């Protein structure tokens, strides 16, 4: 990781448009013509590099974004998709069939949790959910049927950190594929460099950064991406969660500023987390020394991009959390909205929103309390001013 700067890898790519434009041309076609029928046949068979057949398979615009994201994650290849879930579900279905087993972190995005818990069993795929921070528990959950070890680098919403190097050793020992969702920590962490086999992002969040689209990507070996896109057996090709070329072109333009945005998100979140913890609020942020995985996370990150823009505060009760979020929104400090990675601060109470798919008793077991607010800290220029305004909301509601 030390010699790998993911932002430099993106910067080093150079694409020109059809007429020498500084941005690549957008491929506005669903299908492509061939001068010879033989070339069409070979393309169908997957033997013709540089030829396009049909845009559900791939398009020039999607391939530009695939290349940039593979470069960013240091993998051989990548495949963009219409949403983060459109990357996660085909990846798991490509790796697992009936009778197979997944060991997954229990603190993951609610949609992924619901897929593994409620949907995948319909296809004969079972999942054991465990505390990903305890490597002995992870290893003990592995059975002869286990194929995949699944986690998020920094988990949603509890901000638990997965020790990717430790998990990778376990995965190798048991011949499993380690799949890591890196949505919360692009650039900060490069999971493939730490031993992950497959890295996934919801592009909807930091990477696109403007809350105007959903999107996703799977970054992996060329062999795995070819399998995902195989016309006869590829889960992405056959389930069809394809990103539109117009969108991939616009995500590509936003990707260019990701390094600047991540630094500011991290700076602002770190600033607020330190102050609110000092004020006596129960604050969770991986950059705080009090975070249980602070030490290990420090060794995992590319320090330039910091500890990320996500922070949680526990204000005691759901009623207080709701009142605080409504007051902060009325003062234009941010929006009461799910999702993350926007220029504006976004906040929500995960127990009643993004993690509501997780049953109440399981929420309690994993430490997801009622009064927890998840913050995606924005790009505010004057964060001290933001802190003072947030603090006065808390004082007004007798939270501080
Ligand atoms: N992974 C994480 C960590 C998420 O937070 C989300 C969405 O909130 C997803 C995946 C799913 O992504 P999408 O909403 O783009 O399908």
From TrEMBL:
It comes from Flavobacterium segetis. The modification N6-(pyridoxal phosphate)lysine is found at residue 205. This is Methionine-gamma-lyase. The keyword Disulfide bond does not apply. GO terms for biological process: transsulfuration. Keywords: Lyase, Pyridoxal phosphate. Pfam families: Cys_Met_Meta_PP. Gene3D superfamilies: Aspartate Aminotransferase, domain 1, Type I PLP-dependent aspartate aminotransferase-like (Major domain). Its cofactor is pyridoxal 5'-phosphate. GO terms for molecular function: carbon-sulfur lyase activity; pyridoxal phosphate binding. Belongs to the trans-sulfuration enzymes family. It comes from the Bacteria. GO terms for cellular component: cytoplasm.
């Amino acid at each position: 990781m030390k010699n790998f700067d993911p932002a430099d890898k993106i910067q080093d790519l150079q694409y020109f448009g059809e007429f020498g434009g500084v941005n690549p041309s957008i491929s506005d076609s669903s299908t492509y013509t061939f001068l010879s029928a033989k070339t069409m046949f070979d393309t169908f068979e997957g033997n013709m590099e540089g030829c396009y057949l049909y845009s559900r398979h791939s398009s020039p615009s999607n391939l530009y974004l695939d290349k940039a994201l593979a470069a960013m994650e240091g993998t051989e290849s990548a495949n963009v998709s219409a949403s983060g879930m459109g990357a996660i579900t085909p990846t798991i279905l490509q790796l697992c069939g009936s009778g197979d087993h997944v060991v997954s972190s229990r603190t993951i995005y609610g949609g992924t949790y619901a897929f593994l818990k409620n949907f995948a069993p319909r296809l004969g795929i079972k999942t054991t959910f465990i505390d990903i921070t305890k490597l002995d528990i992870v290893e003990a959950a592995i059975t002869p049927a286990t194929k995949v070890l699944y986690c998020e680098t920094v988990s949603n919403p509890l901000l638990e950190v997965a020790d990717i190097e430790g998990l990778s050793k376990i995965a190798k020992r048991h011949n499993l594929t380690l799949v890591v969702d890196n949505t919360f920590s692009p650039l900060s962490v490069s999971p493939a460099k730490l031993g992950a086999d497959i890295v996934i992002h919801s592009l909807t969040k930091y990477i696109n950064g403007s809350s105007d689209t959903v999107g996703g990507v799977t970054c992996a070996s060329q062999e795995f991406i070819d399998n995902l896109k195989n016309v006869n057996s590829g889960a992405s090709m056959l389930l069809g969660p394809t990103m539109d070329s117009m969108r991939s072109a616009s995500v590509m333009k936003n990707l260019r500023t990701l390094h600047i945005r991540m630094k500011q998100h991290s700076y602002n979140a770190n600033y607020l987390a330190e102050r609110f913890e000092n004020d006596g609020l129960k604050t969770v942020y991986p950059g705080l020394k009090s975070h249980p995985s602070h030490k290990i996370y420090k060794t995992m990150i590319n320090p330039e991009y910091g500890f990320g823009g996500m922070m949680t505060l526990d204000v005691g009760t759901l009623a207080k959390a709701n009142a605080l979020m409504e007051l902060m929104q009325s003062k234009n400090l941010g929006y009461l909205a799910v999702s993350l990675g926007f220029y504006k601060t976004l906040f929500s109470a995960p127990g009643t929103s993004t993690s509501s798919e997780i049953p109440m008793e399981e929420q309690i077991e994993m430490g997801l309390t009622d009064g927890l607010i998840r913050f995606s800290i924005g790009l505010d220029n004057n964060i001290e001013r933001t802190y003072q305004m947030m603090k006065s909301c808390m004082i007004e509601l007798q939270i501080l």
